[in-house]
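Figure 2 data, in text form.
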Amino acid sequence: MSIKPQFRLLLAATAISASVSSYAQPQNTPDSNIVVNGVPASPPPPAALPQAAPNTVGPEIRGVITARNGKKMKVEAADGSSTIVALDDATRIKSGGLFSNGAKLTPDSLLNGLPVTVKTSKTIEVHGGGELVARQVSLKINDLKTARMIHNGTAQRFDEQTAATEALRGRMGDIDKYNIKGTTNVHFDTGESALSTQDKTELCATAASAQATENALMLVVGYTDSTGGDDFNQQLSEKRAARVINYLQQACNWKPYRMLTPTGMAKADPLADNNTAEGKAQNRRVAVNILVSKSVDGM
C-alpha cells in the first residue's frame, strides 16, 4: 500500500523530533534497567606534604664568644675551632657564681670575650642543611662583669684595671695593712636583702665620699642576726653584700677594680645583743668600709 505524501512528511518529522529529544536528556541520568555490581573506587588520597624532621640534640660547646651578629654568635673553643650558634626566643641564659642572685639575663648579655658553655640542638631542614640552635647558655656572673668592663672601656683601660685588681688581691692578704677611713652600715628586714630608698641614697653618698679620698678602696661585708640556721644565714649575708656591691657599681659608678673581695660573715661579729629586737635590727646589716693602704696613707 502506498503512503500518501502528506503522511510521509508527518512520519519523518516525528522521527526527527524523537531523535532530538533523546540527545537533550542528561547523559548521567541513571537508567533503572541497568544494574551495576561491585564497590565504587575510592578517590586517590591527596599528595602527602613533606614533614620537617624533628630537631636533634647537638654538641655541647665550651669556649669564648668572639663575634655577635643579630641572633647568631660565634664561639671559639680552646683548640681554636669556631662554631656559629643561633639564638631564639626559647634560648635560656643561665648565670652561676657566688653573686649571681638568680638574675634573669637577656641575649644582650652575651658579649664578646665572655666564656660560655652552650647546649645545642640541631635543626634538620627538609631539603638538607640545618643549623645549631642554643638551648641553654651558661656563664659565670664574674666573667660577665669582666666582659662588660671590656665592652664599656678601651683595651688600655682594661689592662690597667686588670693590673690594679691583681695588685689589690695581693695587698688584701693582710687587712691590718689598711686604714679604715669610714664605714657606712646598710640595714635590712628579717630574711630580706632588698635595699630601701634611703639605703640607696646613703650608698651613693658613700661612693662620692670615697671618690674624693685618694687611693680609696671599698670592702663590703654582709651580716645577719641570729634568726635562722647557719647555712641560711651564710647565704643571706653573701646575698646582702652582693646586692650592695651591684648597686654601688651600677648606680653609684664605683669602679669594680676598686672593690676588694666581698665577704659574708653570717651572724659573726654582731654589733649588738641578738637577744633583743633592737639588737637584731642593728645586726642585720652590710658594712661598707672605705680603706686606704697604710703605705700610701703615711702610716
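Caption note: The two ends are 158 Å apart (CA to CA).
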